[in-house]
Amino acid sequence: MPCMSPALAGCGDNVLMVAIPLGAGIIPTATPDSYRAFPESARIVPDSGISTSCVVAVLLSLAFNHLGRKSASETTSEPALHH
Description:
The chain is mainly α and 83 residues long. Helices cover 51% and strands 0% of the residues.
């Protein structure tokens, strides 16, 4: 399926970076009592859809852009020596 926008140029990772935080941010709005069992001090971020989306987006950005990629030296293989 082709990407609809140049901003989604790698499609897979970029779509996930938008869809997952958006879905996580809808949870507090759709089900307001979903975090009722948490202590009051722990509900500050999850009770806000915007805060939840931001935290999830930052974590996904770290995971995809910093932890999930190999450096160029790790991806290139050394040429085989022929004797």
